Amino acid sequence: MDLKLKDKKDCKYDAVSLGEVMLRLDPGEGRIRTARSFTAWEGGGEYNVVRGLHKCFRMDTGVITALAENEVGLLVADFIEQGGVDTNLIHWKKTDGIGRLCRNGLNFTERGFGIRGAVGCSDRANTAISQATPEDFDFEYIFGTLGVRWLHTGGIYAALSEQSCKTVIEAIKTAKKYGTVVSYDLNYRPSMWSAIGGQAKAQEVNKEIAKYVDVMIGNEEDFTACLGFEIEGNDANLKTLNLDGYKKMINEAAKTYPNFKVVATTLRQVKTASVNDWSAICWADGEIYKAKDYKDLEILDRVGGGDSFASGLVYGLMTTADPELAVNYGAAHGALAMTTPGDTTMASKKEVEALMGGAGARVQR
Fold first, then answer.
1. What angle do CA 85, 90, 91 make, to 5 degrees?
2. Which long-range contacts (CB under 8 A, 24 or more apart) does 201-206 make?
3. 133-160 burial, b if ≥16 CB within 10 A, otherwise e?
4. Cβ(317)–Cβ(328) under 8 Å?
5. Residue range 198-235, pLDDT digits in tens
6. Engineered SS bond to 129: which of 3, 44, 66, 189, CB 3.0-4.6 Å?
7. Does pLDDT of 59 surpass 70?
8. With bands split at pLDDT 50, 70 and 90, how would you rate the model's confidence at 362?
9. DSSP type of residue 258
10. Which residues of 33-64 are buried (b: 16+ CB within 10 A; e: fewer)?
11. How many whole angstroms separate alpha carbon 325 and alpha carbon 328?
């Protein structure tokens, strides 16, 4: 398949993301409510993808975001730098001493274990990125002068505020103007959309965004809630995916949005917080490609698994143009990311490809 990727020599960045990067505070094996210490990480649904593209797959990436200019913002930026993602596109916003003007987002996340599911508690209202405008970033310069081969963003960023809805649409339009491939993860979170108009607003915004997207990522709930497509025969509790119904829905979505070149989703059946069945599917050129099944996958930290899937998928599409290979890169990378703590990957490309090839968990010496 041909995504019409821009030439590497004409672009500073292989990929950039647009979205919020929060400080994740992790109580390890304990609970948020009883913790006396937390491990600090950085993370964000959109950022995690380009972080993986650099750290695992060695691509040149940057993050378009905004941070409040204080010590917490500097800490988040330091984490981003440690991940090798370019911080030159960050917009620093002035704030006061107590965060009235703007602030940085916090994400308290416990991993869950066995019968106890993972728990997230975000504290992200009035953040710097939720207030950011296109003028804060100069998208013409980023996509027109510096050059970007791939932009990844998503519904979590879009749901932050009325302003972020406008900013993401302007970014995507500018990216397309200069030939940048756009991927978008619908990532529907009802609690986030509720403050700015609920599901009706989510559909209004996402239906406009979808017109410009090349690679759309989302599960059955995402497509139903964000784009209004129904999936025949779905389990009411969404515990299992009706693959035949999902395939029909994808074909309908592709007719509605002929700009879609790829549609993909992870397949996760949660047995316990620590054991999931895991796989993924990818639609391209009218065909469905399914990744290898990872049955009874043992999980240390599930947060970021879907973002690492997206990262592997994007890498595979960019380097092989083979959707079957790409979906397998995504599924393997996502699986490995869930075996380590934190939102972001600790896997290497060599490990991903070994897992794709059937490598087991024997000790390596």
1. 175
2. 201/165, 202/155, 202/159, 202/226, 203/227, 203/228, 205/158, 205/165, 205/169, 206/155, 206/158
3. ebebbebeebbbebbbbbbbbbbbbbbb
4. no
5. 999 999 999 999 999 999 999 888 999 999 998 776 66
6. 66
7. yes
8. low
9. T
10. eeeeebeebbbbbbbbbbbbbbbbbebbbbbb
11. 5
Residue type for 28, please?
Answer: G
Residue 284 and residue 229: Cα distance in Å, rounded?
18
CA–CA separation, 9 and 250 (whole Å): 34
Angle of CA points 232, 235, 240, to nearest 5°: 110
User: How many other C-beta atoms lie within 10 A of the C-beta of residue 292?
Assistant: 17
| 3-class SS of residue 281 | strand
> Which helix or strand (DSSP H or E) is residue 299 part of?
none
Residue 237 has pLDDT above 60, yes or no: no
Q: Is 304 left (phi over 0), alpha (psi -120 to 50) or beta?
A: left
Q: Is 59 helix (H, G, I), strand (E, B) or coil?
A: coil
> From the DSSP assignment, how many helices (H) and strands (E) are in the chain?
13, 15
CA separation, residue 181 to residues 140, 151, 271, 314, 330 (Å):
15, 6, 36, 10, 18
pTM (two decimals): 0.96
- For residue 271, what is the enclosing H or E element? strand 262-272
N-to-C CA span, the chain? 39
CA-CA distance, 209 to 344, in Å (whole number)? 26
Strand pairing class (91-93; 148-154): unpaired
Q: How far apart are CA 198 and CA 188, in angstroms?
A: 11
Tokens of 82: 């440690």
Q: What is the largest CA-CA distance in the chain?
A: 55
Torsion of CA 181, 187, 190, 193, to 10 degrees: -20
C-alpha count within 13 angstroms, C-beta hemisphere, residue 144: 9
- Token pair recorded at residue 8: 């590497």
Q: Is the pLDDT of residue 107 over 90?
A: yes
